[in-house]
Amino acid sequence: MQSGVKTLSAGGGASLCCLLLLWLIYSHLLREGQLALGTCEIVMLNRDSSVPRRTIARQTARCACRRGQIAGTTRARPACVDARIVRSRQWCEMAPCLEGEVCSYLFNRSGWTCTRGSGRIKTVTPLPKEPS
Predict the structure, then answer these.
(1) Residue 19 and residue 94: Cα distance in Å, rounded?
(2) Which residues have C-beta within 8 Å of that of residue 88, sequence separation ≥ 6?
(3) Rounded distance, CA 124 to CA 89, Å?
(4) pTM for this structure?
(5) 106 to 76, 86, 90, 91, 96: CA distances (angstroms)
């Protein structure tokens, strides 16, 4: 009976050690520039305010999306959204505007606008994905 307990204890210790090692490797990989599944980060942001009363901002995001999702915008932040929304250009379905803003499509569905009650308008036109 005691040899069985010792074997069980040694096997449990080895399993625990193996799990700890796998967790350390996984957390190290995430720190080395890999994103967690379903998250996005902004990798580049350029602003051009050379024209009075107008700011042009260009943003590039990197996302690690789940199957069936693609990089999009939710509440004015990069996010993984249903790929169907982007393919069909139903931009407002991904809730791209901030709270209190109203989303509407551009005339040719090439993008969307977010309008506040004060009259401030943000126009967004996604760039086509470059071939890799």
Answers:
(1) 38
(2) none
(3) 12
(4) 0.64
(5) 17, 14, 11, 10, 14
